[in-house]
Description:
The structure holds 2 protein chains of 2 kinds.
Chain A (H helix, E strand, L loop, with lengths): L1 H32 L6 H9 L3 H26 L7 H18 L4 H30 L3 H19 L29 E3 L2 E3 L1 H19 L1 H11 L1 H6 L4 H18 L2 H8 L10 H11 L4 H19 L9 H38 L14
Antiparallel strand pairs in A: 1-2
Helix pairs in contact in A: 1-14, 2-13, 3-7, 3-10, 3-12, 3-13, 4-5, 4-6, 4-10, 4-12, 5-6, 5-10, 7-8, 7-11, 12-13, 13-14
Chain B lengths: L1 H34 L9 E5 L10 H15 L3 E5 L7 H13 L5 E3 L5 H10 L5 E4 L9 E6 L1 H15 L4 E8 L2 H17 L4 E8 L10 H13 L4 E5 L4 H10 L3 E6 L15 E7 L1 H13 L6 E5 L6 E3 L4 H5 L1 H15 L10
Parallel strand pairs in B: 1-2, 1-3, 3-4, 4-5, 5-11, 6-7, 6-8, 8-9, 9-10
Antiparallel strand pairs in B: 10-12
Helix pairs in contact in B: 2-9, 3-4, 5-6, 5-11, 7-8
Main location (chain A): membrane
Pfam families (chain A): BPD_transp_2 (PF02653)
Membrane topology (chain A): Multi-pass membrane protein
Amino acid sequence: MKKFDKDRLLLAVAGPVLALVSALVLTVIVLAASGVDPIDPLRIMIDQAGYEDIQVLIINQAGIYYLAALAVAIGFRMNLFNIGVDGQYRLAAMISAVVGTAVSLPGPLHVLLIVVVAMLTGAFWAGIAGALKARRGVSEVVSTIMLNAIATSLIAWLILPKNFGVQPAGSNDLTTGDIPESGWVPSLSLPGGDIYGFTFVAFALGIVYWFVLNRTRFGFDLRATGASESAAQASGVDAKKMIMTSMLISGAVAGLTGMPLLLGESHTYNLSFPLGIGFTGITIALLGRNNPVGIFFSALLIAFIDKASAGLDQNGYAKEIGTILQGLIVIAVVVSYELVRRYGIRRQQQKVGEELAAGHALKTDNKEVAA
Amino acid sequence: MRRITRIATVGLASAALALSATACGGKKSSDAGSSTSSSGTKEASAAIAYDIGGRGDQSFNDAAYAGLEKAKTELKIKTAEAEPTEGESEADKVQRLTELARKGNNPVIGVGFSYAPAIKKVAAKFPDTTFGIIDDTSQTDKNIANLVFNEEQGSYLAGVAAAKTSKTGTVGFIGGVEVPLIKKFQAGFEQGVKDTNPNAKVLSTYLTQPPDFSGFAKPDLGKAAAKGQLDAGADVVYAAAGLAGSGAIEAAATAGKWAIGVDSDQYNQPGLAKYKDHILTSVTKDVSLSVFDLIKSVKDGKPESGEVRYGLDKNGVALADSNPQYKAMADVTAAVEKAKADIIAKKITVKTAP
């Protein structure tokens, strides 16, 4: 079996690498076609990543993306498409900011309360889609997208000064008030800036994700249901319960997405709280093949493109080159994964055929791999 | 097995390519990382960081750009600009302002209230640089100039003009994003309409809800909203929606009705030249003046600091009269002039919230 795994690992790595390289090549072609120096912007982006402060930005952003991508990946492993991570984390950040501002507790408890409220809110919002799917068979893709829009409107209403919002004197912003300092998570100070404490929690969650999926009965049930719902059901897995649980967990993790920013930087939910992270999370989960290590590197990559492309502006290039690159990566990922998958299947069939023809018994462990 | 070798070779080769690319970048960047602070030049330079929508929004950001360009030619200084990405966080804004300040730009101006917390942080790090923030007075410091406008006063005049011009007695207001700032526009406009014609109906629509700021950036949203209002009988549409407002202007012009522009004098915007005959007037918010004034004050060695307010009295907000058709409507311009005088004389107080 071991040698066969090496084979599969190679195929698994070939997908993303093929995707990245073809995305890069396509970007260069696009740039050249539009009359822009195709290499210089990429060189500037790599240069940018050398600056300490940009590196800190990249790490922090990667932590945020990592949480969003994990939330998406949990659904993906179950064949559930939680497109609603975006709404879930924004609502969670807003509600937990309101709660965090209203109470005053000793340090760790305060933070814990905010985090728990965020997880519960995210779980609740995703749970609506889960319940609809489990009980009524409503496609979670449709319901989560619609819940995103509802979350936006709900937040806009909740943040009005007559409800929970505050309009600081002289400001045109609306906030939820400032969370007292006991509710802040300390950051790691580096020469280039502060790395949010919660970023480490984010990456640690990747280990939990790996353990739960691969080393627990629940994780097995989840993967089994994802692979074949009917087969899982036949072996005694309650599919409806699995849909509900995995949506709740996905939502709870989604709820954490806003935490690095809320606890480490803004300490309030205001009008310029970022949105769209949930959708980037989908890209990252896809690119990382729902694997905690893969997601980590994809999160870093997308964060790198985000932050490094911002500097293009001041060097006479459009920073949208970064957006083009990201878009092409998404297309290339889908295409190259499919190509590699087909190739893998064909090769497997061929191998089996060859061995049958040679009259060998079907033993997998005497296969040699040339690589 | 041979095939896997081929795929592996391709994979390895491309990985090696990618790695070597990063490797050579890595070496260079560590040098650059230490030499960033020395790149500041002696030559005077001013910088602005744009709000969502960026340069080319024919409106708010372009007004700031106009001020910067004016300073460039009249004061003979260098300029720098930076644009935001949608969905960015406060850390990115801090980064952008820091970058601009570190390169020796002075002043550094944040266009839009969302820069306020970031300006406060960066201003503390660069005490010798003057920072400007447009539309916010909540964050103050010795080296921060808060450039604010009485948008409601200009919008009031637009309301007067709209009520006087409308034949159907129904006028429309389109706000980009439902935030307090845009509500000032709405409040002034509605009050102006009602004071002029108590029976007039004002249809008010917002394109998006925060934190979705695409209502300032997507012309198609403005177009759809304007169409809705025109269908409901409005014949003058006032859009305070940044770049999205150009969609509203397009819709109104296509329907042969009146549009009222915002921030810049949109009658004179080259990007809107096709529709200019239907742009009745524009509520100008002279962001360019405020940007120019601040740059000039820094150049003269007497940097502005604290709240700098631009109202009707200083022509910081005004109603443009570059459309000859508007100028020909004597009763409309007379009513507008009277209202303007009344506001300056404080005979009329314009509300800042609807």
